[in-house]
Write a structure and sequence with these properties.
By secondary structure, the protein is an alpha+beta fold. It has one domain. It has 9 helices and 8 strands. It has a two-stranded antiparallel sheet with strand order 1-2. A two-stranded antiparallel sheet has the order 3-4. The protein is elongated. The N and C termini lie far apart (37 Å).
Length: 232
């Protein structure tokens, strides 16, 4: 599926308006973990998480994983669409990215985060947002490609736009953390979005091949970057 097939792009202002409206129900701090999928909430979880149901059943909300994370990217969920997710860990790439140090897994006393889970080396996948990405919009920004720690996971196409190799990407979040779209385009109130986001591989947005429009991302991922649901 081409980027065009993702659906007609919302204006940046329209995307933010949609995000603000959704934030009444579910807010997010920083990089965000909330994804809508078939009416259910899916969150970007730390390494070692298996299925959402398994994590919710095993997690005792002790927040030892939160305390163990040296980069403060593991955060407990606060107000969410489902009260039973409150206090469970989700990832926010506002202040750092994951280097898979596994401190969170080591700290977990219940097996909610386990070394046997596939997510120990694969948190999610990065998705380029074509109508928010600077390189897709008007300038040759290569920050995400330059910063990516996985060789070949992010490259440039023939038009110098970032392309994600979804087989190589491990969802570490460094691209999302370093993306300068919000700051470089801050003169336009409707561009306060990152040009790349990490999403769980199980969400609808992850199934879209190539770059995605903000409309497709909002539809398949939910709110991208609002405040509230993750405790700072």
């Amino acid at each position: 599926m081409s980027a065009t097939d993702c659906g007609s792009a919302l204006s940046r202002r329209g995307f933010l308006a949609a995000g603000a409206a959704s934030a009444v129900l579910v807010g997010l701090d920083g990089a965000g973990a909330f994804v809508r999928q078939s009416g259910q909430a899916v969150f970007l979880r730390p390494p070692g998480a298996s299925s959402e149901d398994d994590l919710l059943a095993r997690c005792n909300r002790c927040q030892r994983c939160v305390q163990a994370c040296p980069y403060s990217i593991v955060q407990p969920l606060a107000l969410t669409a489902a009260f039973f997710t409150q206090g469970t860990p989700a990832l926010s790439f506002k202040t750092g990215f994951c280097d898979f140090c596994m401190k969170c897994v080591e700290a977990c006393p219940t097996g909610a985060l386990s070394f046997q889970a596939p997510s120990c080396d694969d948190i999610g996948v990065a998705k380029v947002v074509e109508d928010a990405c600077i390189a897709w919009d008007w300038a040759g920004c290569t920050v995400c490609v330059d910063e990516c720690p996985v060789e070949g996971a992010l490259t440039l196409d023939e038009l110098a736009r970032p392309v994600v190799d979804e087989a190589l990407c491990d969802g570490c979040g460094k691209c999302e953390l370093k993306c300068p779209a919000a700051s470089l385009l801050a003169y336009d109130a409707a561009t306060l979005e990152k040009g790349i986001y990490v999403v769980p591989r199980t969400c609808e947005a992850a199934s879209v091949a190539g770059a995605c429009t903000s409309e497709a991302l909002e539809r398949g991922r939910g709110v991208a970057a609002q405040e509230g649901a993750i405790h700072a």
